[in-house]
Specification:
two-stranded antiparallel ribbon, alpha/beta, 10-stranded mixed β-sheet
Length: about 375
């Protein structure tokens, strides 16, 4: 497959919102879109961390002598009374994202999205009692584009860390007020896809070090069970799940949400559990993207290849859900609410099975509740 086309298809997140029905329809949309409530039993907290890796230069901006990252941590909360709901993105990030996508909505619309997590509340759980799940977004997308999934996983008893891979997002805000943009989005190198996933794998290992090392950067880090770490990502973030697992044995289980796997699995194979969850156009067995078929053969442990009828590339993010509430028609056959429901259900089941050891019949055969999901491979 042509790499330039593959890279273009890897672009996800809010960059995909380019098909408004009309300015009038957008103007009639609700002023404050909202994310669906999480399905787990725990209230959800969230906090942001600034992390700096002085051991390596930034891969996209040579003048940056250290790799700087912003991450969000979603987690089960001890209580949320009187606390503030977390913003989806900052007003400046919203402005840049909307401008980049050319949307006929107010510049601050995305900053007004109603989330379900509360800022900097006290974490709940017992010491070393919570699995850790890493989330990596698509190229151009902020970590917030996977918030619906993150909140749901946290409500079910996981710590979730979403990574903004700096200069790979349209907008990332740092504590000192800097807002970086997507330098990598204009990269024309023939091996760009492999560069991205290998850089992200290094980002993930560094973040794990910062959360589980001797001097962790998060106050709730003692709740994390270091032996139960998983990773999921959408588009190039999904491809990075494989690259990160190959690099870092701490990651026990991984999920690729509709991402072309630019860096192949080594010939020795990958024996840890893995889930492919994709759209039919690209990722049905024998479909346009041959990378899943190639890598399927090298997955030697527990594995599933699931295809969601009616889904598109961005269906595994918050994009369709928010687009509909803003009065924008992406032309997707599946509603945003349904795509969020399916993504949450299968990703949560996968991590419950492989990080918590709980049986999950949903992963064993087709479900009458989710007839859109077919088993391939």
């Amino acid at each position: 497959m042509d790499l330039a086309r593959t890279a273009a298809l890897a672009l996800a997140g809010l960059l995909t919102l380019t098909a408004p029905t009309s300015t009038a329809a957008a103007a009639a949309a609700p002023a404050a879109p909202r994310l669906p409530a999480p399905t787990g039993s725990h209230a959800v907290g969230v906090t942001s961390l600034y992390l700096k890796d002085t051991s390596r230069r930034d891969p996209w901006v040579p003048a940056a002598t250290a790799r700087e990252l912003m991450v969000s941590l979603w987690y089960p909360a001890a209580g949320t009374r009187g606390k503030q709901r977390a913003p989806y993105v900052t007003p400046k990030e919203s402005e840049l994202l909307i401008k980049d996508a050319g949307l006929p909505v107010a510049p601050d619309t995305l900053s007004k999205v109603r989330t379900n997590a509360f800022t900097d509340v006290v974490p709940a759980g017992r010491k070393r009692g919570l699995p850790l799940v890493v989330l990596s977004p698509g190229l151009g997308s902020p970590r917030g584009s996977l918030t619906s999934l993150a909140e749901d996983l946290a409500s079910k008893g996981n710590v979730v860390v979403g990574i903004d891979h700096t200069y790979e997002s349209v907008a990332t805000t740092f504590p000192d007020g800097r807002v970086t943009t997507c330098v990598a989005c204009g990269n024309k190198d023939p091996d760009f896809g492999e560069q991205v996933v290998r850089s992200r794998a290094a980002d993930v290992s560094f973040v794990l070090d910062q959360l589980t090392g001797a001097k962790p950067k998060w106050r709730g880090a003692e709740l994390i069970d270091r032996s139960r770490i998983g990773m999921a990502g959408q588009s190039v973030g999904g491809a990075s799940s494989i690259a990160a697992m190959v690099r870092d044995k701490r990651i026990r289980a991984g999920v690729n949400l509709d991402g072309t796997t630019f860096a192949p699995i080594p010939e020795r194979g990958l024996a840890r559990p893995f889930l492919f969850l994709g759209s039919p156009t690209m990722h049905s067995p024998g479909g346009k993207d041959g990378s899943w078929g190639r890598d399927w053969k090298k997955l030697t442990g527990w594995k599933r290849w699931l295809v969601v009828t009616g889904a598109e590339h961005a269906s595994f993010t918050d994009v369709p859900l928010l687009a509909e509430q803003m009065g924008l028609d992406l032309g997707f056959a599946m509603t945003g609410a349904r795509s969020v429901e399916i993504t949450r259900a299968y990703v949560a089941a996968f991590f419950a099975r492989h990080l918590a050891g709980k049986p999950q019949p949903l992963l064993d055969k087709p479900s009458a509740r989710y007839p859109e999901v077919t088993f391939g491979g």
